[in-house]
Amino acid sequence: MPKQMSAKDMFFDFLTMAVAIALFSFCFFYFIVAGHWAIAEKITRAAAFASMFGLAFVLKLKTEKHKAIKLKKEDSLDDILVYFSENDKIKDFVVCISLPFFIGALAWYDYEISAIDQVQMVAVFLLVYAWHRFVFRKKADFGDVMCATVYDRIKDQIFIYFLPVFSLVPPLFASSMDTVDLIQAIMIFGIMYFWHKYLIRKKE
């Protein structure tokens, strides 16, 4: 007898379908009904360069979801990997505030810091800072301390793979994506991936 879907799985599937419908509706009315073909052509050309990040995110999301289901059956999702100190929190915050500066430095080295670059800098900082607050929250279920569980690491991996996709949204919709934007996305991913690989690791 097939296992019934949990409430979380049903919500995830509903959310995925809702986002897909919303995107399809937007594209249909904005590009087809309104006739913005020139903009659609520019976005499509730019999206071709960004598609590798989107594909990596989708594959990672699927992989981590299957991993979470397997670990849930083994009752090990809530196993604690690491306890965080205030020093860990400060280091992570330094990484948060450094990312916008790296984005700006690459843009400035190429030519100048445009309005789109500024939007990228602010958007990336706000998203990463929000995630920083989430990761370093105190958990009452574990003695009101800051810690990371196996499930936290899974969610963190999904977030890190989503971050470069998010950073490319401003230049994508402004039809101004170029090689520098791709380098910025790779740099953001690399910094966060290796830092959090070190930060959220099992300590003996």
How would you characterize the overall build of this protein?
The chain is mainly alpha-helical and 204 residues long. It folds into two domains: 1-35; 49-199, no CATH class. It contains seven helices and three strands, in the order H-H-E-H-H-E-E-H-H-H. The protein has a three-stranded antiparallel β-sheet with strand order 1-3-2. A hairpin with a 5-residue loop joins strand 2 (138-139) and strand 3 (145-149). Helix 2 runs antiparallel to helix 5 (150-167), helix 3 packs antiparallel against helix 4 and helix 3 packs antiparallel against helix 7. The longest helix has 37 residues, at 37-73. The chain is globular and about 50 Å long.
Sum this structure up briefly:
By secondary structure, this protein is mainly α. Helix content is 75%, strand content 5%.
Features:
single chain, mainly alpha, 5% strand, 2 domains, globular, 3-stranded antiparallel sheet, 204 residues, 7 helices
Biggest β-sheet strands, sense, barrel: 3 strands, antiparallel
For the secondary structure, the number of strands is 3
Mean pLDDT: 80
Strand order of the largest sheet: 1-3-2
**Radius of gyration, taken over Cα atoms and rounded to an integer in Å:** 19 Å
**Morphology call:** globular
- Give the count of helical stretches: 7
Query: What is the terminal separation in angstroms?
Result: 41 Å
How many independent structural domains?
2
Q: Give the % helix.
A: over 70%
Question: Could you list the spans in which at least 5 consecutive residues all have pLDDT below 50?
Answer: none
Percent range for β-strand residues: 5-15%
| Run of helices and strands | HHEHHEEHHH
The chain-level structural class is: mainly alpha
